[in-house]
DNA sequence: AATGAATGAGTATTCATTCAT
DNA sequence: CATGAATGAATACTCATTCAT
């Protein structure tokens, strides 16, 4: 069964919160809460200090500016977001030829895993989503993460599936867009847009996978 | 050729900006620019006044509060967003049975039209997107617009296509999600996430439509 | 009965509101209301305009400044306040010698009449009272009215009563202070400090007069 | 001679300004000055900050709002105003029967002491006087202080004097009004209305006491 | 005469940040 | 390390007053 070993790699890797003093932890927690509740610009450091139970000055001992605090929260999240794609055995596994249902398994693993991840890190992801358009720094980080990791990894995988005939021969750029759009669209709808609707996650994931597979199979009722 | 009349209805309806004094127009324009550049909370009324070329007090003669100004910008946009679905002949046309390629035409018309719309109203849509999570008022408006107009209209249409056998028999809720997610995902990627990439809009729209149609056809390579 | 003629003189003299346009009247009424409710400094011209049902600009067509409006309200009141002392027959009458109970009648007439007056002009008097300490102009007007009219008239009368032996031989300055303090103190208590207590005005006036008369008689239990 | 001990109790009790930082003290001093010069509403926090020699923000670190600052100034004054009536030995002493000139001594002590007090706290008393009509909070405090302390204490004393036959048998409510009106009237005239006149305080106090005593003796020249 | 849009200085209050303790 | 008093620039909003219509 070690042929499923790569699935395990999808799990969180080193989520080492490093050595943060308890006060520093409290500050980060409070900041995440408040930033995600009211948005970065509308949050005040004094409120964060109050909720963290520290003095106003303490925040600035650890983070030079409010903007610094935001970055400190958000940056370590990038790695976590793309964790599965960084797993050593991940790509290798996908490339084992002639596996039945390989594309399907891949999508299911990815979607399931990232949904769980998003559930766990909801507030930070909300902050990220909200602030990327306004913080040049984050925008650049996003671009480099996307092009250097997400895009190249997915491209390899997609092209592999295309060679296997699992996926239609569209430009990989387009295929990647479809997959990400559908996957992220599901997660966003599930967690941000209609979190209160009644969801059967397992079933909805299956529908979504089928939608992607059919959509990319390039064959219609003949 | 009047069987394509409904397509024309997709075009903007009355976008009368009502009777705004020139100063008021300047204020709105400046506000839209600045809100979309820095976000609502990070925008200052003094900067808006400066860019609009009016005194700061003038803003508050027309809009009681900064929040009021935001609402005044954003609310009239709701109607414009759902304009096509409100068109009288729109649904009627879709329901004419036995039309070949009907679902495809529907998706193409919708996607093309809403992309054009989004291109024209980029900054306001950005504001809307950014502020819905933080402005209770906007959240409520979104919910009611979605459930009362978008969802019900699309549901009728989807069920019609399902009866015709064009679309697989999944819950209409799920089908609507796929279509919206894919369509909106395309528009967002095109205009917000990677606006600077090289896009062949026409072709990309065709790919997207094929993706949706195959994805919802329920048939795979046989 | 013409020996009581002077009493009638105590009544309002020319309360000619001059020729004020209806809008002007509305403005004055609104200003009096609002100034007395919130104080001059805390009242805004825009609120006055709103309550008067006129445009903001209209106020400034009639009164150069907000301060001007205050003065226009308050100045004509000075004359009304000292009306009784200005009555031609008033002093003459008091000087008719050998009238029994003359001092008592004088005090009763004065007190009754000024209480009625104060009841009728409560809001304006409140404004006057509140603003004298802060408006140099009003302070000066008060001083000149007091020294030129109130003080001199009362002095004559008091000295007359002293010569008749009705009143003790204290400095008239002191006697005037006692009378005014007691009289005004009664009116203020009655109308401003404890307006909601149950008052039997007639009886309370009698007590007050007796208090002044005994107090100034210079005789104690012997 | 400990029979005059209660007189000493009339003196200020604990006027501990608590532990105020020097900046806080400066702020309070400046605020008292400016509020009493121009009135609360017409005073600006920026002017207070300037005169106190602190940054404007510093005011709001110590007092949440401008209104808060007013209250912080004015509230501790209530206790000081009624200090003599709170003195333990005060009432006891008054009640020692058969003392010659007891009522007279009482009035003299009260008047002298409160005049000194008013001289020392002129500006705060001016603020209090001016703002009671506009600050609901102060109005309520005044009412409760008056009914719970001033009125009840004076009533006991007045009724005691009435039983001794020192004072006429009018309703105590009325007697209290006469005494307060005359006393406060004297202090106001002395300090607020004609502060620049030439006053022989000792003599004027004696006249005022005689006026009250005669006025309340209920006996006239027979 | 009357309007009300426009002004810009002024308002109370908040903010991120500094620094002496 | 941590505090919290202090800062002063910035904020949203109000105001008395002007002026073209």
Structural class of chain A: mainly alpha
Level-1 CATH class name of the largest domain in chain A: Mainly Alpha
pLDDT below 50 for ≥5 consecutive residues: which ranges of chain A? 1-16
Indicate the percent of residues in helices of chain A: over 70%
- Gross morphology of chain A: elongated
Q: Report Rg of chain A.
A: 20 Å
Proportion in β-strands of chain A: under 5%
Largest sheet: number of strands, sense, barrel closure of chain A: none
List the helices and strands and how they pair.
Four copies of one chain form a homotetramer.
Chain A: H1 5-9, H2 22-38, H3 45-52, H4 56-62, H5 66-86, H6 88-95, H7 102-120, H8 122-131, H9 136-164, H10 172-193, H11 201-217
Chain B binds a DNA duplex (21 and 21 nucleotides) through residues 21, 23, 44-46, 54-62, 64-66.
Structure description:
- The structure is a homotetramer of 222-residue chains.
- Chain A contains eleven helices and no strands.
- With 222 residues, chain A is mainly α.
- The interface between A and B is large, with 36 and 36 residues.
Write a concise keyword list for the protein shown above.
homotetramer; 222 residues; mainly alpha; Arc Repressor Mutant, subunit A; Tetracycline Repressor, domain 2; 2 domains; 11 helices; 73% helix; 0% strand; elongated; disordered N terminus; DNA-binding
What is shown here, in short?
Chain A is mostly helical. The first copy, chain A, has helices spanning 5-9, 22-38, 45-52, 56-62, 66-86, 88-95, 102-120, 122-131, 136-164, 172-193, 201-217. Chain A is built from eleven helices and no strands.
């Amino acid at each position: 069964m070690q042929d499923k070993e790569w699935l395990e790699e999808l799990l969180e890797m080193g989520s080492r919160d490093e050595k943060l003093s308890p006060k520093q932890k409290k500050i980060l927690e409070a900041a995440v809460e408040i930033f995600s509740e009211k948005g970065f610009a509308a949050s005040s450091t004094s409120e964060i200090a109050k909720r963290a139970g520290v003095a106003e000055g303490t925040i600035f001992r650890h983070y030079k500016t409010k903007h610094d605090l935001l970055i400190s929260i958000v940056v370590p999240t990038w790695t976590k977001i793309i964790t599965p794609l960084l797993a050593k055995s991940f790509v290798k596994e996908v490339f084992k030829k002639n596996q039945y249902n390989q594309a399907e398994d891949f999508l299911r693993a990815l979607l399931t895993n990232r949904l769980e991840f998003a559930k766990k890190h909801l507030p930070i992801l909300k902050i990220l989503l909200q602030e990327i358009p306004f913080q040049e720094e984050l925008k650049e980080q996003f671009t480099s993460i996307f092009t250097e990791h997400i895009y190249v990894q997915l491209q390899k995988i997609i092209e592999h599936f295309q060679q296997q005939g699992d996926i239609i021969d569209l430009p990989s750029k387009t295929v990647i867009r479809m997959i990400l759009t559908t996957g992220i669209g599901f997660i966003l709808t599930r967690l941000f847009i209609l979190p209160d609707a009644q969801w059967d996650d397992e079933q909805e994931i299956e529908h979504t996978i089928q939608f992607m597979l059919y959509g990319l199979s390039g064959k219609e009722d003949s």
